[in-house]
């Protein structure tokens, strides 16, 4: 991968535009869940989330990596939770409720998260970070763990697929594993798998309930397994927990006229059949020092002028190559710029797209062209999420007059 580093000033961020690219199960739930961001300061002593070593009962276990990472998630593109283990380590991030929540309430709401497993040499295969629910059931304490290796993700793939983001949502057939035997009727042995509905129906005694949520990797006594994972957008009990770094990329467009036809007058300067207006410049996206890491980026360009643009009205080159334009909604034209080889934008980095736009219009009887507001150019940063060249919501625009 090519790495770009530099620093340039910024412009407009339109967060949330990437929601149109989510897995279907995430889109439908986005409006119902409350979003709660988790920053680096929230993970650790005194924060709302605890690491392995912050919990006295398990603080003697060797901790792995537990940090808010700049690696972008596939929904908001603002960072993620990094959990990694090797040589008998464990890693977790846990959020505890102030009072137990009935499991039937938790089971009735969305239970989902996004997962990414990076391929590492001699690493574990077919497994990922678990979404866990600490639970009291019929007076007994246990932990329920979602089993991603047995689940189907939001893209229809079964099990864990390495080196790609996956959206896992608990369904009626999804299996959860209990860490301890439960005195239910019938009894549920330790290590057994059951759908959430089984636990919800059985764990209804006074005082029963869910004590919080945990993202976890590694098992006690497993001295060989290595696993490098990222998780985000853990959704439990009506709240989506979004792990995020402090900043986001911003953008700006600089376009200057390089050729512009003179206004025509019927007598002294006969009007041509079309006007031609060429502007050249650059689209610049800048990532702050504490910002995310965007992988395999590109640029989405949208052109409009207040009325329907015919495909032949514009000629665009991006990075010296002709750009294919396709009709979009409300009379716009759209093109996507991708870079071979792929380019990542790291924190404190810059991504540039050189741009030349030639706009042709037919003059009207009064000598005007009919364009009411000039040519508006919008640019959005694209990056790898659930799929390549996914919209990030980082948008900037300008108008060429």
What would you say this structure looks like, in words?
- There is one protein chain.
- With 401 residues, the chain is mostly beta strands.
- Helices cover 5% and strands 42% of the residues.
- The protein contains three helices and 26 strands.
- The strands form five sheets. Strands 2, 4, 5, 7, 10, 14 and 15 form a seven-stranded mixed beta sheet that branches. The protein has a seven-stranded antiparallel beta sheet with strand order 3-6-13-8-9-11-12. A five-stranded antiparallel beta sheet has the order 16-17-24-19-20, with no helix packed on it.
- The two termini are 38 Å apart.
- Mean pLDDT is 87; it is low at 1-31 and 365-372.
Question: Which key terms come to mind for this protein?
Answer:
about 400 residues, mainly beta, seven-stranded mixed sheet, 3 helices, disordered N terminus
Number of strands: 26
Major β-sheet profile:
7 strands, mixed
Give the N-to-C terminal Cα separation.
38 Å
H/I helix tally = 3
Our Rg estimate from Cα atoms comes to 26 Å
Low-confidence stretches: 1-31, 365-372
Strand proportion, as a percent range, falls in: 35-45%
Write the layout of secondary structure elements.
Elements: E1 2-4, H1 24-29, E2 34-38, E3 50-51, E4 65-69, E5 80-85, E6 91-101, H2 103-108, E7 112-118, E8 130-137, E9 140-146, E10 166-169, E11 175-178, E12 193-195, H3 196-202, E13 209-217, E14 227-236, E15 239-243, E16 250-260, E17 275-286, E18 298-304, E19 314-318, E20 321-322, E21 326-327, E22 333-338, E23 343-345, E24 350-361, E25 375-383, E26 390-400
Parallel strand pairs: 1-23, 2-15
Antiparallel strand pairs: 3-6, 4-5, 5-14, 6-13, 7-10, 7-14, 8-9, 8-13, 9-11, 11-12, 14-15, 16-17, 17-24, 18-22, 18-25, 19-20, 19-24, 21-22, 25-26
